[in-house]
Amino acid sequence: MKVLVNGQLLKRDEAVVDIEDRGYQFGDGIYEVIRVYEGVLYGLREHAERFFRSAAEIGIDLPFSIEDLEWKLEKLVQENGVESGGVYIQTTRGVAPRKHQYEAGLAPQTTAYTFPVKKPENEQAHGVSAITDKDLRWLRCDIKSLNLLYNVMIKQKAYETGAYEAVLIRDGIVTEGTSSNVYAVKDGVVRTHPANQLILNGITRMNILELIRKNGWKLEEKPVTEEELRQAEEIFISSTTSEVIPVVTLDGEAVGSGVPGPLTKQLQAAFQESIQQAIGISSS
Ligand code: PDD
């Protein structure tokens, strides 16, 4: 198994992180998770662009181009013979004596590796339970930063109560999940929080919204209130590794009729089809 360290392919046990890396000490860095289907990095351009955007937002000047990054990640996937799996990539601001402030000219540290992913088929077919909790994160959730402490705390709470995800609520408004975007269906309209600083604009989210528009289903990028969430006909979540998963129980109460809803199922089918198309185009 090889890993990428600042552009070089190394054996995993040869990769070393400095104990004064600012990512390690401050979470001062950014990341992406990309899915690999049949050896193809799905949505690579979109993930690479978001990675560059996150870096720019926190003032990290990445020392490579989007094309270099894509090429290196493809090489990593090939080298490790990944057919179905994922790639994790992160860049930290660099290594320096521990002080909150930093000097210009630090060398960003970029690492990437591949990992196996099991498609959550059971969850996709039968739906999952979710809990709700307060969204007490900072106000720049649009940046895919390494600072995931609150997400970790609340995901752990969900996990310990046997739920798959926790839906976060800020001032009575549904924002997103701890590691997914959240959608509610009401009167046949799919509603999801607009892409602003309160949520991460998921790559899966963007693909889903495009599919909804293409199929002529009704869509509103408008905040959903907690009340509306509890009365939704259908709820589903999306992320790179989850794809589209129905939420059939919320805080112990059935969502709609308590089984995956028709719109969610149609969307799941459309999403699988779009993956197949993307893979076909990339490998031809
Ligand atoms: N998480 N919102 C949050 C807070 C997330 O962490 C994620 C993804 C998403 C969905 O984004 P995308 O569709 O681009 O995966 C939304 C990744 C998968 C993770 O941290 O593992």
UniProtKB/TrEMBL annotation:
Pfam families: Aminotran_4 (PF01063). The keyword Transferase applies. Keywords: Aminotransferase, Pyridoxal phosphate, Transferase. Its cofactor is pyridoxal 5'-phosphate. It is an enzyme of class 2 (transferase). PROSITE patterns: AA_TRANSFER_CLASS_4. InterPro entries: Aminotrans_IV, Aminotrans_IV_CS, Aminotransferase-like, BCAT-like_C, BCAT-like_N, Class-IV_PLP-Dep_Aminotrnsfr, D_amino_transT. Belongs to the class-IV pyridoxal-phosphate-dependent aminotransferase family. Acts on the D-isomers of alanine, leucine, aspartate, glutamate, aminobutyrate, norvaline and asparagine. The enzyme transfers an amino group from a substrate D-amino acid to the pyridoxal phosphate cofactor to form pyridoxamine and an alpha-keto acid in the first half-reaction. Homodimer. GO terms for molecular function: transaminase activity. It comes from Bacillus atrophaeus (strain 1942). The keyword Transferase applies. This is D-alanine aminotransferase. Its EC number is 2.6.1.21.
